């Protein structure tokens, strides 16, 4: 048994999304039922101000609907409330309010919630709507708020998060270590990084700096056993996975007999997989930054004092 080593928490990426339609209550419930310590999901806003748990800006890939979420109403005869997933078992799209209600059930008060904030959103509008829902919960400041982790891709979202949701922890989500250091280091507690970004020499140094600087590291999306064990070797804090049960079972085996279990999972893949080479990771970083800036504007550091303050509801 490994007594001194710590093991990453298990957070369900879009729930237990390998088995259930992603970002649905059924998927979230399955991840929690399997024993995940947290769930991760994404948010978009309808034209009538309903916050939805949904990954893509478009309905096309995963539902029976078509078009951009921001151009559709939630309520009404043609509203998105009537859509279902393409994947079986067919599910409706959950709202942020419904997901919060799930987390507020007595049996789920231990579950953490990583909200991936997509850059297609207007941050002030989104965070204001989220605050209204959060603050409507009983004892929200002590029971709910500490469990919510805002995941931010774009630095201009930081001051809006500080203003509208100051009680929520913040994380950087991305693949770019330079962006993480330059724009987010002083403004977040957690770095949610792609597995590939942490495999390089630069990634190794970043992991060390985070651990020495008291920053937590989450890694995504880790679905194979070799990568899961490597994340343990790196002393990662959270593994985001589509297959929570797989990581939970492997974690139990590692806790029972670390040396023999870890020995079954080699490290050769880190050198034989072209995707993990530094030039490839650098190219991916540049491409993603360009895409994010094309959607949400240039990466800049915005002073929170320049954002109009919002009065918050007391518990």
TrEMBL record:
GO molecular function, one term: phosphoric diester hydrolase activity
Top-rank taxon: Eukaryota
Annotated ranges, domain GP-PDE: 8-251
One Pfam family in the UniProt entry: GDPD
InterPro entries named among the record's database cross-references: GP_PDE_dom, PLC-like_Pdiesterase_TIM-brl
Gene Ontology BP terms: lipid metabolic process
SUPFAM superfamilies: PLC-like phosphodiesterases
PANTHER family listed in its UniProt record: GLYCEROPHOSPHORYL DIESTER PHOSPHODIESTERASE, GP-PDE DOMAIN-CONTAINING PROTEIN
Full protein name: GP-PDE domain-containing protein
Species assigned in the record: Meripilus lineatus
